Amino acid sequence: MKEKLVLSVLVDNESGVLQRIASLFSRRAYNISSLTVSETEDENFSRMTIETYTEPENFRQIKRQLLKLEIVEKVAELTAQNSVSSELLLVKVHAEGIDQKNALLELNAAYGSRVRDISLETFTLEYTGQGETIDSFIAELDEKFGIVELARTGITSLQRGEGSFTEDI
Predict the structure, then answer these.
(1) DSSP 43
(2) For the whole model, what pTM was predicted?
(3) pLDDT, tens digit, 9 for 90 and up, residues 25-43
(4) What topology does CATH give the domain 84-152?
């Protein structure tokens, strides 16, 4: 039975790192379901948040394989208990006429999303939250209004508590 594995990976901030990490996953036939990367508070490092679904017996092997790469400084497994996670969604939906626009604004207020653009026939909304909530928001928007297009960032996470992932490097 496959389970979700979310890893925070601290890597050297240099070209080619993303390709090397992605290659490691593809060589071992692990699919990356979500990947976010950005520079950390220390410009020498980037943080990757990688989500994959695999059998629990593969968790340690994936972490060990990542740590074998000289570009990887640190790997931590993130869970709902030890981390805070969020995703960003941008979605453009149909909204023609006053009644439909008012209904969309009500749904927008219920979820707490932000209106980023309005045209005669569409609204573009921005929403941040947990993946499951974003999925629910998307389903409701699609059912009630119809989605023109959407983009989502994938999961990004930080460990709970004090300190920094980079502090002991």
Answers:
(1) T
(2) 0.86
(3) 999 899 999 999 999 999 9
(4) Alpha-Beta Plaits (3.30.70)
**What is the CA angle 88-4-27, rounded to 5?**
100
Distance CA 131, CA 141 (A): 15
Q: Confidence class of residue 166 from pLDDT cuts 50, 70 and 90?
A: confident
Please give the Cα distance from 108 to 163 (Å, whole number): 35
Report residue 95 as tokens. Answer: 């909204």
Place of tokens 């410009």: 43
85 burial class (0-12, 13-18, 19+ CB within 10 angstroms)?
Answer: middle
Domain ranges of the chain: 3-78, 84-152
User: What is the token pair recorded at 74?
Assistant: 């640190």
